[in-house]
Every structure is written in C-alpha cells, then in structure tokens.
C-alpha cells in the first residue's frame, strides 16, 4: 500500500494499543466525536483533547488536512493503522477519524500518550 501523504509520523504498536484503549474508554465514560466533519468542528471549537486518524483512509482527502489543522490549533493527534480498528472501539464498522472531547477517568493514559507523541514528533 502506498504511503499516505497525511501520515506525518509512525505510531509504534504499543502506543497504538494505548490510543485505541483510550478511544474505547473515552467512548464508554467520556465523550468522542465521530466522522471527519464532527472532528473538524470539535478542533475548531477547541473541544478536542486528542484526534485519532486512521492511516488507511481512501480517498486520503477525507482526512488530509486534519494533521495541519491540529497543529494550527495546538491539538494533539495520533494515527492508528486501520479504520476498522478505530471504528470497532466506538461501536461502528470503520472510522476515518475521531476526536476525544472528554477522556473520562483516563487521565493517566492520556498523559502517557501525549508524552510519547511528543517524543515521536521531535
């Protein structure tokens, strides 16, 4: 599969697992926004704590500008390999992207993810 142009860094598997766990737990105890339009709105409103983008989105234009928007708005973002993995954590078939608006009681996991992302993006 061709390298997606919107993927700006590689997410290690251990981190991806943590991200997917956070997504699932946030879906259960906190609040998430699904669907690219909802994700964009949550970023622009300053509600996003973490944006998660799938790497296998076609066409890539669907999520292409999300990393840039996150960077402009100083919102954390991360990637997971598959839309299906992301979707299954929030009760849908597949998700191109989602935004964690409230990570519920998952403060520690969130902090670990953010600090690991900071290391990767250096």
From TrEMBL:
One of its GO terms (biological process) is translation. Pfam families: Ribosomal_L7Ae. SUPFAM superfamilies: L30e-like. GO terms for cellular component: cytoplasm; ribonucleoprotein complex; ribosome. The keyword Translocase does not apply. The keyword Protein biosynthesis does not apply. It is found in: Cytoplasm. It comes from the Archaea. Its main location: cytoplasm. Part of the 50S ribosomal subunit. Probably part of the RNase P complex. Belongs to the eukaryotic ribosomal protein eL8 family. Multifunctional RNA-binding protein that recognizes the K-turn motif in ribosomal RNA, the RNA component of RNase P, box H/ACA, box C/D and box C'/D' sRNAs. This is Large ribosomal subunit protein eL8. It comes from Oxyplasma meridianum. The gene is rpl7ae.
């Amino acid at each position: 599969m061709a390298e997606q142009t919107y993927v700006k860094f590689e997410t290690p598997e251990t981190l991806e697992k943590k991200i997917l766990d956070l997504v699932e737990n946030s879906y259960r105890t906190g609040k998430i926004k699904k669907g690219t339009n909802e994700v964009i709105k949550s970023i622009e409103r300053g509600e996003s704590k973490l944006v998660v983008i799938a790497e296998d989105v076609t066409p890539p234009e669907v999520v292409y500008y999300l990393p840039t928007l996150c960077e402009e708005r100083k919102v954390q973002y991360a990637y997971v390999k598959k839309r299906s993995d992301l979707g299954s954590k929030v009760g849908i078939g597949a998700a191109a992207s989602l935004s964690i608006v409230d990570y519920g009681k998952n403060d520690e996991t969130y902090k670990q993810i953010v600090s690991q992302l900071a290391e990767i993006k250096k």
